[in-house]
Amino acid sequence: KEEDYREFVEAMMKEIHEHEEKNHWMMIKRQELPPGIKIEMGIWRFKRKSYLSGDLSKHKARTCADGGIQRVGRGGE
To answer: Which of 18, 30, 58, 69 has a CA between 20 and 30 Å from the CA of residue 42?
Structure first.
């Protein structure tokens, strides 16, 4: 809904590209997953970074694991 949403989409694409370049993950379709594999959900965090003068420096997008679905003592099961 923000006017600068295109800059955030560009920042998201950059974040995805950097992770794929470093082999942190690979994108696959859900139907290609073997049975019994747990999918770790994620969320996007967005931030407008500014210089000390207050001028806009860049748009930043980071993907993070969604901590709301984690369970204490499950040990990655």
So the answer is: 58
pLDDT digits 0-9 by tens, 7-18: 999 999 999 999
For residues 66 and 42, the answer to whether their CB atoms sit within 8 Å is yes
| In contact, 43 and 30? CB cutoff 8 Å | no
43 within 8 A of 63, measured Cβ to Cβ: yes
pTM recorded for the entire structure: 0.68
The H or E element that residue 11 is part of is: helix 5-21
Contact present, 63 and 47 (Cβ < 8 Å): no
Angstrom CA distances, 55 to 10, 14, 43, 47, 62, stand at 19, 22, 27, 14, 21
